[in-house]
Amino acid sequence: MKPLLNVLAGILLSGTMIGTATAQEAQTGPSEAVMKYRERMFDEAVRPLANRTMDLMFNIAEVDAGETPSSLPVSLAPLNFTYEVDGKVHQGSDAIVNTFADALIIIKDGTVVFEGNFNRSTPETRYNSYSMAKSLNAVMVGLAVKEGLIASVTDQVTQYIPELKGTGYDGATIRDLMEMRSGIAWDENFFKPGTSSYNAHVAAWVEERARYTDAALITKREHAPGTFNRYNSLDAAVVGWVVERAAGMPVSTYLSTRLWQPAGMEADAFYVIDGPPGIGREFTAGGFNAVLRDYGRLGLMMLNHGHANGKAFLPEGFVDNLRHDITTAPSEDGLGYGWFWWTVPGTNAFTALGGEGQFIYVDPDTDTVIVKMSHGPVGPEADPVLREELAFMAAASQWDGR
Fold it and tell me: The Beta-lactamase-related domain covers which part of the protein (predicted)?
């Protein structure tokens, strides 16, 4: 533990944390201390802190909120229900400890019936979404389609990013990418040195010597677009790039002006960017950060078919298309997949899902939204935790909230 504490102490005391890069940092890149912390952000001892301090580890782009938050009524109740997983019955509150929760909010019929912040987090804590940011990409595509900036999800990505002509993305549509069916050759295991995902992660996230989307410029095709589903963070990052090009502005600015402010979010959010301001691009595959209640407001918008704060933000039918399962069989964890949102077979529920246990779970049948922010394990150790999380979500959805 001492080497890890030395790393953290070196960062905290040296002034090398980079929420905003200095001119020298823009030229030289992050310090060795910062890079070591980034390399270890998924370690068990670091995760609980890293997930809520991304603005101290990375350069960021703020997503400004407006001045007047939308109403979010509250009528709190204890988690007086049970759920069953692997043959064992648990009390609802057991999930907080068992699944490494840092924050949890349950909204039923538009009213908050449970809200909790744990492990020294607060209502003002901005939690990293990890791959829930991919789901937000689909929302931004919907915003851009409604605004006429993107003609259709069947547009080819090269219409917006001509630099990708001749790469593995040539011929793929925006919809192909949202369904993780671009067909590019890609290994998503960013914990394994030498894989395409690991190389992009280190170059962009850790060392800031390249942009994450630079990997798209050298991709090769493995399958015909639209024919093979494989989880792929680069597809999500490229969709963020498409939104940036279509909007003619950074996605942080676009999200702020088109959704975060008019939908009545209560706090500024932010994206991690993969380089100094003016150089780095928002990491739209896993670097969005917001407070718990605003993730809840986003879930309510999805529950209400793209409507929030008295306004329609998404095209009619977009949410229904987004949550339509495109897979031929559930994944190993029992989930299906739509447009950057996971589906729950046998139900109408769908969820944004991020590494370490981040959820925006939406159940139209029970008018329920559940947001859970966590610091759970990664890799194979995460499988039993995910089973318990999904069992908890299903039971919480059926709970009457009283």
Answer: 103-387
Q: Cα separation of 358 and 224, whole Å?
A: 32
CA angle 283/250/216 to nearest 5° reads 45
pLDDT on residue 42: 84
* CA separation for the pair 99, 91 (Å, rounded): 13
pLDDT digits (tens, 9 = 90+) for 19-54: 344 444 445 678 888 888 888 888 888 888 898 999
| Longest Cα–Cα distance in the chain | 58
What does each C-alpha distance from 131 to 74, 188, 347 come to in angstroms? 28, 12, 22
Domains present along the chain, CATH in parentheses: 41-398 (3.40.710.10)
DSSP secondary structure, 83-118, as one string: EEETTEEEETTHHHHHTTEEEEEEEETTEEEEEEE-
Residue 5 CB contacts under 8 Å (≥ 6 apart), including other chains: none
Strands (E), 208-295: 269-273, 288-290
Is the alpha carbon torsion for 84, 89, 91, 97 positive or negative?
Answer: negative
What are the residue ranges in the chain where pLDDT is below 70?
1-28, 329-332
Distant-in-sequence, close-in-space partners of 210: CB < 8 Å, separation ≥ 6:
200, 203, 204, 274
